[in-house]
C-alpha cells in the first residue's frame, strides 16, 4: 500500500499496488478530466508528481509521446491514466490550475 496525497487540497488515500493513478485521484476526491477514457490521447489527466515518482510505474512510450505535445509539461509531468502504483513509495501529486480545488 502507498499513500496518495493530492495537493494543494491535501486530500489523502491509501492505494494498493497495481491501482491506476487516475482512478486513485478520482477516488480521493480530486477533480481531473479524462475525456479519452485513459488512452493517453487527450492529455486531460496531466498532473505533476512532486514526490514519490518511484512509487509509480515508468513512463511508457505512448505517454511520453503525448506529453511531448502538451503545453506546460516538466520533468515531474505524468499522465495519470498511464501510471500505476508500485507500492514502494508514497506519492504526492499536484493537480493543475482550475482542477486543483
Ligand atoms: S485520460 Fe486522456 S490522456 Fe489520460
UniProtKB/TrEMBL annotation:
Cofactors required: [2Fe-2S] cluster
Pfam families associated with the record: Fer2
Annotated InterPro entries: 2Fe-2S_ferredoxin-like_sf, 2Fe-2S_ferredoxin-type, Adrenodoxin-like, Beta-grasp_dom_sf
Keywords: 2Fe-2S, Iron, Iron-sulfur, Metal-binding
Domain annotation 2Fe-2S ferredoxin-type: ranges: 2-99
Family membership: Belongs to the adrenodoxin/putidaredoxin family.
Name of this protein: 2Fe-2S iron-sulfur cluster-binding protein
Source organism (scientific name): Pelomonas caseinilytica
Amino acid at each position: 500500500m502507498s499513500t496518495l496525497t493530492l495537493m494543494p487540497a491535501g486530500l489523502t488515500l491509501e492505494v494498493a499496488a497495481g491501482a491506476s493513478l487516475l482512478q486513485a485521484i478520482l477516488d480521493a476526491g480530486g477533480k481531473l478530466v479524462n475525456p479519452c477514457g485513459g488512452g493517453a490521447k487527450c492529455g486531460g489527466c496531466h498532473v505533476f508528481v512532486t514526490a514519490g515518482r518511484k512509487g509509480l510505474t515508468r513512463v511508457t512510450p505512448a505517454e511520453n509521446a503525448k506529453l511531448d505535445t502538451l503545453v506546460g509539461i516538466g520533468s515531474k509531468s505524468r499522465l495519470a491514466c498511464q501510471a500505476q502504483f508500485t507500492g514502494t513509495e508514497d506519492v504526492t501529486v499536484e493537480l493543475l490550475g482550475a482542477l486543483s480545488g
